[in-house]
Amino acid sequence: MSETDMAQIPPEPPTRGSSSSDRARVDLRTIVVAAIVSVLIAVAVLFAVPAALGANPIRVLQGKESPQVREVRTVQERVIQGGSEAAVEATNKLLPSVVNINVQLGSQGGGVGSGIIYRPDGYIITNNHVVDGATSISVSVCPTCSSYDGTVVGTDPIMDLAVVKVNANNLPTATLGTSSDLVQGELAIAAGSPEGFQGSVTAGIISALNRNVDSGTGNALLNVIQTDAAINPGNSGGPLANSSGDVVGINSAIISQGGGNEGIGFAIPIDDAIPIIDQLIATGSVTHTWLGVTGTTLDSSISAQLNAPTNQGALVESVLEDTPASKAGLEVGDIIIRVDSQQVDSMATLLSVLLRHKVGDKVNLGLYRGSAEVGLEVTLEAKPST
């Protein structure tokens, strides 16, 4: 700065003297202002940090969440995580419980499939079509790849499920998730032995939910999970997992023109599979329930023809004699829209819901009879074997 510039700055006024009381008042004001600023900063941080982390500041202050809130947050956190890191962690958690199943089919040769360890004492979940007709079964458990002879405990051709037992203990079991909260588009991981390559994993997404598929075995797969994670021959019976490495389905079928993966695979929801698996372990067989009706899915076209009050549900076309349906008073033309609290939007959904029940269970059917809504209680019975 030049001397001229210096000269232009006015001189500071002389400093006035201050008494001790003046200084005390100044110090007190400074302390009060500083305290207020500190409180404001603390409050701002308390609310800003949880908000930045995606949390509700009120819940943080309360220090607790309801079970419903925790469940929603768990699903959200699982869905938003993704990428290779999540896939690696899920794979490390999943693979120890995935087994390779080699079967001999007598004169027909052999085949290969997959399975998951359900219990540490050697109970393994797989598909019925993997072990159907097997004369001998060999189960390989990695990472040691120890081989065990397997025996079939029981099978369910309708659900395409089976349980195989090996003579072993302290086996690494799969962590089971739930299929009820799956979200279309979230990460999906398939594991197994495609074309015999044991311990393989592929990743994709949940492509769709509640698909109904002709399995080619004479039984339709109902309300199954669709995924584009690569599933090939040999993957059957292996797990479909979420990004947490929890099993949410049992891989069962693919749609393919050439026999290989085309990005359309299907898995049995784990929530539907486990009750069947537990029955097979307990009794060696499964007894399915039924209503004793035949019907079709109501759609907008059929609804318009019938002038129905809804365009979704299971339309009853016939009621068999001496069945749970006839005893409860179901009639031809009834439209079943609910089983207990479960909404029914199709015939497949109705059948799927019934498969989750046991013989002797009482269920409440909500239905339309004409334009009136009617409720009926039905006691479920065993479906005849023929």
Please provide a written account of the structure.
By secondary structure, the chain is an alpha+beta fold. It has 4 domains: 43 residues, no CATH class; 74 residues, Trypsin-like serine proteases (Thrombin, subunit H), CATH 2.40.10.10; 97 residues, Trypsin-like serine proteases (Thrombin, subunit H); 94 residues, PDZ domain (Pdz3 Domain, Roll). It has 10 helices and 20 strands. The strands form 4 sheets. Strands 1-2-3-6-5-4 form a 6-stranded antiparallel beta barrel. The chain has a 6-stranded antiparallel barrel with strand order 7-8-9-12-11-10. β7 and β8 form a beta hairpin. The N and C termini lie far apart (107 Å).
Keywords:
386 residues; alpha+beta; Thrombin, subunit H; 4 domains; 10 helices; disordered N terminus
Gyration radius over CA: 32 Å
Q: Give the overall average pLDDT.
A: 83
User: For the record, what is the CATH homologous superfamily label of the largest domain?
Assistant: Trypsin-like serine proteases
SS strand fraction: 25-35%
Number of H- or I-type helical stretches: 10
Across the major sheet, the strand order is 1-2-3-6-5-4
The level-1 CATH class of the largest domain: Mainly Beta
- Coarse shape: globular
How far apart the termini lie comes to 107 Å
Q: What's the count of strands?
A: 20
CATH-defined topology of the largest domain: Thrombin, subunit H
Compute the number of structural domains: 4
Structural class by sheet pairing and helices: alpha+beta
Estimate percent helicity: 25-40%
Low-confidence runs of at least 5 consecutive residues: 1-18, 45-65
- Give the second-level CATH assignment, the architecture of the largest domain: Beta Barrel
Largest sheet: 6 strands, antiparallel, barrel
The topology string of helices and strands comes to HHHHHEEEHEEEEEEEEEHEEHEHEEHEEE
